[in-house]
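Fold it.
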Amino acid sequence: MNKKQKSNTGGYEIRLSGTGGQGLGLSGKMLAAALSDEGLHVAQSQSYEPTSRGGMSRSDLVVTPQTADYPLATGLDYLVILDTRAMSISDGMINTDAVVLVDEELVPEPPKGDFKVHALPLSKKAISLGNLRVTNVVSLGALIALGDICSLRTLEAAIERITPKKYAQMNLDAVRAGFELAAH
């Protein structure tokens, strides 16, 4: 298996974090579906503040080759931060050698620690594609390029299956753009 296996269970934990309205729940579902399609077991949870937009939001995935002993994230191997207001929700949970991806405009002062931070123009790329609302999908493409979490092809298939038909091409363009952004 070419996927990075970070924890002692052979699995890893992913958090997509930001604010309400950024589509993090949907991104988590897309990524969970792709990982499941690759034969992995995925426990997904999400949390958000009770405001429709602007409150903290996160989607966590616990990924294992077999059923997870505990379905909630406790030590993050991969972290996406799409808004500076979401930084504190992961304090003390980022593992050494984790891959941390931040939007360089929305998170100008990323967390510091024994992990690799990748600051990329995720929202700027989404805007260049014509819609800021696909920043979440751009970040998925970048994350899988940086983390070797699943194949781009598998993620594209999951996106096509989950996304309403009228938004499918826009999301496919976004995930490919994010992958290319991180691959360079």
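The chain has five helices and six strands.
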